[in-house]
Fold these 2 entries.
Entry 1:
Amino acid sequence: MTVESGVRPVAVRALTWLLVATAAATVVVELLNFWYAPEPGLGLWVRTGWALMRTLAWLILLNQVRKGRTGARPFGLILAVTTIFAVGRLIVPPTGRPALPGVVGFGVLVVLCVSVVALLYKHPAIDQHLTRPAKRLTFGPDGLSWQEGAPRRVVSGWLMTARVAAFTYSPLMLVPCLISVGELGDKPEYLLAVIFWFVAGFGVSYVVLLNTFFLLRGKRLAKVVLGWAGVGVLLIDLPLCYLLLGTDGLIRDGAPLVVAVALASYALVKG
């Protein structure tokens, strides 16, 4: 059945409840990790805050699924992958073993995220449901308005995935950058490096925004630029993570960015 009929298929209703459960599980696991943390310093505060913001993203995805938006599928994939990494880096303390409740909660969250992706990509009823294009700003007799409309060109799902993955570059750089501010007391000589890191984190968001605009319009040069942008963020972020946050920071904060770049690069090649 279509979205317009007002009656959603059973699989779509199941997916919406699964998204609610995933959003709730994200909050519960993060709070458990914070509760059992021996010394919740600046790094844990920033990482927990960033992870909690993903709860809002799950609610946005829920809204997209309910409305049958075509962009829900790549958005859900990137959100599931980055959520697993964002929460996973919270359960492992700098020293000692992780708390058992946090590990169990993380296992449940992984199962929920995998189930969401499986339903989004493998269930035929959901595939038929996610057919409505996003609203866009149009000019008509009544002036400017947001309206749904058939896209002017067919956009590959892989290109949509690359677009969503690339938009995570900036926040994935800014999170460790903010954490590194707390390290300047012991490493004041890295002040300029942190400022450069902060500027680069914001700057890449504009590069991604501009290039994804042309990417969805079939411009080959946009693929090349976006690919090199992924290489650039790794060359900036990974060394600074290691210098300011050590091996622990490199694994916790560098690994999610590596995954995002790898996923975006693969999607660019496939698209």
Entry 2:
Amino acid sequence: MGEQAENVTSADSAGRWLARDRDAGRDSADRAVLTGLLADIRDRVLNAARLRPGHDVLDLGAGTGLLTHAAARVVAPAGSVIAVDRSAAALAEIRTNEARIRPVVGDACHLPIADATFDRVVARSVLIYLPDLRAALREVARVLRPEGLLSAFEPVNAGRRHDANLDGVTPDEIEAIDRLRRLSSPSAGPMMAFDVAPFVDAALHAGFSTPTVGETTVTERLSTRAHVDAHLSRRPHPGAASPVDLITRHLGADTTARYVTAWYRALDKAVDRGGITFTNPVVYLTAYLGTRRYGHG
């Protein structure tokens, strides 16, 4: 397929990825680490949103409701949370026994929401998938009430690095593999292009004040062969093929075998330092609609 994307990213594939593929091959310890990381991200996004009882909140790209349920508890009893996502399958996982939670199937760039509906918009790992940040943030600004607030978490995937020395795979092969991964789905390009500067530009054009940006790094470690196998066999994001499937399809089984072996060798050399380490820069973003900052309100 050359430069064509491997799979067409669909709303249903996103739902399946959240429910199944994201955790594929993880052992209990690995799942616990991921759960803890997601809880920390949730809490930081919601704390930065300064939610209060009575607020009306949009959870943009809500997925299975990581932010939705926690936000609903804070804004109770009079506030509400609308969870918007393209995936009906993901939204079906959200508990709707509380009247203040309402799932809505919709696109971030064309929200099926009236103007000036929300006090807050929250998002986690959503903006990176959008090819048109300006359109998305214009929509966020449209549905926010005056002086409303956007609070978001996003990874900066172009800065993701690992410390594995993949002996046995040539630099040209590594570049070819990296290129395949950059083209592995329709959303892979926006995911790699997302950075603070384009976000700030889009926010300012949408009418937000200069965003506040908090930068940090998320670390992941592969400490066993099972972890390596899971990493190479897991779909990295909705619509994408796993590295093993991608390489086999385009570069052949021999290249795949040498690639996997190179990871095993790198792991053997990394035992003393606890395994192969990945680092990924991430950002926490807040932006107010208009120029006034919140004091007490």
